[in-house]
Amino acid sequence: MLMASCLAHPPGSGMCPVNSSSSGTSTGSLWQKGSLYGKPFGRFVSTASQGGGQEVTISSGLSNFVHHGMIFVPVGSTYGPALFDVETLRGGSAWGAGTYAGATGARMPTALELDVAEHQGREFAKVAKRLKVTS
């Protein structure tokens, strides 16, 4: 059974894509049983550009998890000053790690973007451990 999850979602015009949204609505039996209540989840994204809706993509998908009573574990300010650096092109925010793939999807994540993603994973695992949750 799913106990803790950190999910990636590509945006669809800044919104959670239909196939991701419908997977949330297909978990009714888990919702009725309360199977996911109190379990942590996190989100990370990839968009084509800076205006691609990284934060709104993460926030627009929260309702499916909240209905289950799951606990959102964002990056927050735990990464430190580099997360607030506006001089370096990088995806992600306090909502979750991210990258810019470019219009063709050819751009690869930078070392900073990968480091933020790894940091998110480590911090997520710490929270799951404190909650005594297994994956």
How many domains, in number, for the residues? 1
Report the CATH architecture: 3-Layer(aba) Sandwich
Total beta strands? 4
Distance between the termini: 8 Å
Helix content: 25-40%
CATH class: Alpha Beta
Say what oligomer this is.
single chain
Low-confidence stretches: none
Total count of helical runs of at least 4 residues = 5
Give me the Rg, rounded. Answer: 15 Å
Tell me the CATH topology.
Answer: Rossmann fold
CATH superfamily: Flavodoxin domain
Fraction of residues in β-strands: 5-15%
Largest sheet: 4 strands, parallel
What is the mean predicted local confidence, pLDDT?
83
Pattern of helices and strands:
EHHEHHEEH
Question: In words, what does this structure look like?
Answer:
This protein is an alpha/beta fold and 135 residues long. The chain contains five helices and four strands, in the order βααβααββα. Strands 1, 2, 3 and 4 form a four-stranded parallel β-sheet that branches. Belongs to the WrbA family. One of its GO terms (molecular function) is NAD(P)H dehydrogenase (quinone) activity.
Keywords, separated by commas or semicolons:
Rossmann fold; alpha/beta; 35% helix; Flavoprotein-like_sf; 4 strands; single chain; NAD(P)H dehydrogenase (quinone) activity; 135 residues; four-stranded parallel sheet; 5 helices
